[in-house]
């Protein structure tokens, strides 16, 4: 555990990275265009992502077991990152740093 972070943020960021990377091996990584890409390209990405964050937030704790609830939190975090990307595109704040 890192002494730098009180809430283990560094560990959660690593876990989120692995989660997102895993989604590309599932339904996102088949070499096809994602629906989210089309929605962002049409200029509705930010609203779409915020709607999905609302969806998973509202269903948190209502569906399945605690592991499912935790997965909903991961989905919210993933949509938050995509929302940041959509926001940056919309407002010309794209950061191309690696």
What general form does the structure show?
globular
Radius of gyration computed on alpha carbons: 15 Å
The helix/strand class is mainly alpha
Mean pLDDT: 89
- How many helices? 4
Series of H and E elements: HHHH
How many strands? 0
Low-confidence stretches: none
Main beta-sheet annotation: none
Termini, distance in Å? Answer: 26 Å
Strand % is under 5%
How much helical structure, as a percent, in the residues?
55-70%
Describe the structure.
The chain is built from 4 helices and no strands. It has helices at residues 9-23, 35-41, 45-59, 66-90. 8% of the residues are buried.
Defining traits:
4 helices; 63% helix; 0% strand; mainly alpha
List the helices and strands and how they pair.
Elements lengths: L8 H15 L11 H7 L3 H15 L6 H25 L8
Helix pairs in contact: 2-3, 3-4
What is this structure, in a nutshell?
The chain has 98 residues and is mainly α. The chain has four helices and no strands. The protein has helices at residues 9-23, 35-41, 45-59, 66-90.
């Amino acid at each position: 555990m890192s002494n730098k972070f009180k809430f283990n943020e560094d560990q959660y960021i690593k876990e989120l990275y692995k989660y997102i990377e895993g989604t590309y091996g599932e339904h996102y990584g088949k070499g096809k265009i994602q629906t989210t890409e089309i929605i962002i390209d049409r200029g509705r990405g930010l609203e779409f992502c915020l709607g999905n964050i609302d969806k998973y937030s509202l269903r948190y704790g209502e569906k399945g077991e605690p592991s499912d609830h935790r997965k909903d939190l991961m989905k919210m975090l993933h949509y938050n990152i995509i929302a940041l990307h959509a926001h940056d595109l919309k407002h010309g704040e794209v950061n191309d740093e690696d």
